[in-house]
Amino acid sequence: MARGRCKVALPPAGLVRDLHKPSQRSGDVSARNKSLESIDSMRMLMQGLIVDPLQTIKTCLPSAKELHFMSSARRIAIKLRSYVTRRLSRPGRKQKTPVFPDPVAVPATHPKGLAYVVGDPIFSIPIERCRYTDGRRYSYSEHHFLQYYRNGFKTFRSFYQAHQPKNIFEYYFLSAPRKTSASLEDTPWLAYCESRPPRREAGLLDSVHGCQICGPASEERITSEARRLDHVLASIRQHGFRPEMGGHVRGHFMLRRDGQWVFVIREGFHRVAALVHLGHTNIDVRSHPRYPRFIEEADSKFWPLVQAGVLTQNEAMEMFEQFFKAERELQVFAAP
Questions:
Q1: pTM beyond 0.85, yes or no
Q2: Average pLDDT of each block of 10 consecutive residues along the chain (336 residues)?
Q3: What residues have CB less than 8 Å from 94, skipping those under 6 apart?
């Protein structure tokens, strides 16, 4: 989960202007450098980039003897630091909690009307309608994150060893009828108008260590994912699910002609798995700004990989239908 930012009131304008005045004492280069470091620290503090501002301030406070020999710029920085300390230590000071709009009701069938809701609405989605990027449900029988929570690291590692798709068909758990130029990163119904930078999670490049979705993956990647799942679960268990800290889970709808729909998670994979494991039945989500709000079966002949001739319309529809499959037992998990 992302850390929240610390916001403080700005100090008086006169105090900030004094920081730009040159030191009245010459020859004190080290003190001057320390002053500049203090100013940079205070800027970071006021921008909310320091996680524990009070501790940072207290550890940097000088002794009275040191203060006597400081340059004027250094002393001004200390004044500024003291001002912010008083603001942070004020009794009864409360963090502002953002007010989110009420969730918009999603009908059981034919939710296309939500395409005309402007802004960034919140939708309350049943967990059983949430899907991973390859069509799997967030259930213990299908999802490797939930298998990790139930059966531990051995089963988690076995998934990455057993599920190593070689083409886009196997990515969606289909047998490959032919060779295709589509890569595992391609999606039949999405086109990217700009080049995508190399994917990196927890400092590990996907091209080197593999991705969280499937194997092959390095031991570093698997261990990193397990630690992240542990951290997210512990955080939600202790503090609850707080979208104001890490943002809402985001994704898009997939809609069949008969009106049935699912919601595909594109951001917040670990949070959804932790919420399912903790017994949540609904989750508040938002549309992802980089994806269409709806992917519709009725538009299948216009999907990018179909239009480009990379996939036939029937092949793309088979992949689409994987998101609407009944719950299944996937043979990619080792016995615990």
A1: no
A2: 48 48 47 52 52 52 51 67 66 65 89 92 95 96 95 94 94 91 90 73 78 93 95 94 88 96 96 96 94 96 95 96 89 60
A3: none
